Here is the input.
Amino acid sequence: MEFVILLVPFLLAIFLGKIIIPYIMLITYKKRLFDPVDARKLHQSIIPRLGGVAFVPIQCCLLAITMVIVYKTNFVNLGIVTWEIFPMFIMLVCGMVILYIIGIADDLIGVSYKWKFVAQILVASLFPLSGLWINDLYGLLFITYLPAWVGIPFTIFVVVLIINAINLIDGLDGLCSGLVGVGCLVLGSLFAYYQAWIHALLAFITTGILISFFYYNVFGASKRRRRIFMGDTGSMTLGYTMAFLAISFAMNNFAIKPFSEGAIVVAFSILIVPVFDVARVIFIRWYKGLPLFKADRSHLHHKLLRSGMSHKNAMMSILALSLFFCIFNIVTVQYISNNIVVLLDLILWGSFTLIFNYIVNKKKGQLELNDKKEDNVNVSVIN
Here is the structure.
C-alpha cells in the first residue's frame, strides 16, 4: 500500500502541471515577459521563462496534503522517526520559498549574482540547522566519519555547488528538467527500496511536475508550438531539491534509511555530468584569466551543438550519459570500493570530454577548410 502514496501524488503532479503551466504561458505572453535574446542564447525567438513558477507550489502542496492524509487517516504506517525527519522537510520548504522569491525577481527584473550567492549560502545553511549534513564519506579518500565542524561547511559548499551546477546546465531545451527528472526518478526508486517513503514522495512529485514541464519546454503547446523556459525560479529550486535528496541519501542516519556502503557515490551519480562540467568550465576560465561567473558557450551542450548535433540529440546524449553514470555506479559499488568507482568516473568523464573535443575540433577544421575552398572559388570567378 505504500506505493499508492507515491503513485497518486506523482500522477496528480503531472495533471496539475498540465493545467497550471499553460496558464503561466498565457500570462507571460499577454504581459510580454520573455527571455531576452542575445548572442549567448541558443534561441532566437521570444520565449517566456517563468515555467519554474509552477514547481514549488505543486511540490509543497502535494507533499503537505499527502502527509496530512496519511497521518490523519492512518492509511499506512510509514515507520518514520517524525521528530528527526520533519525538521529537515520544514527547512527544505523554507529554503525553497526563499529561492523561489529570488528566482522570480531575477526572471522579472534581474538580481546580481552576488545577492543570489548570498541567498544560496543562507538556504544551504538551513540543512545543517535541521540536522541534515554530510557526516560520512564512506571511505572516500580513506575518510569515514566527518565531525560537525568539517561536515557542516562541506555540506553548505556542496549545496551551493549543486544549485549553481543545475542552474548553469539549463541552456538547452529539456536538459535541466530531463537531468533532474532522471535524478529524482533514480533517487526516488532507491528511497522507496530502502522504505524512506517521505523522501521518495518528494522525488516522485518532482518527477511528475517535470514530465509536464518537459513537454511544454521541448515540444511546445498548441498549433503555434509555443514553448516556455523554467528560468532561475525553476533551476535554483530544482537544484536545491536535488541537493536535499542527494545529501539525505548520502547521510549516515538510520532515521532516514539503513546504512549502505556506496551511499555517497550513488547519491551524487546523477550530478556527475553537471558538476564535472561546471568544474571544468570554471577551471578553464580561471586558467585563462577570465571572469569565473561570466556566461559563455563553453559548456558541454555547447560543444555538442558545435559538433553538428541537433538540440534534441545533444539533450538526449547528455541525459543518456547521466543515466549511464547512475547505472554504472549503482552496479559497481556492490563489487569494488568507492575510491575505485570515483576514479573510474573521472577516467570515463575525461575520456568523454576528449572525444567531444576531438569531434568539435574536427568539425571546426572541416568548416574552415570548406570556407577556404569557397573563398578560392570566389576569387577564381572574379579573376
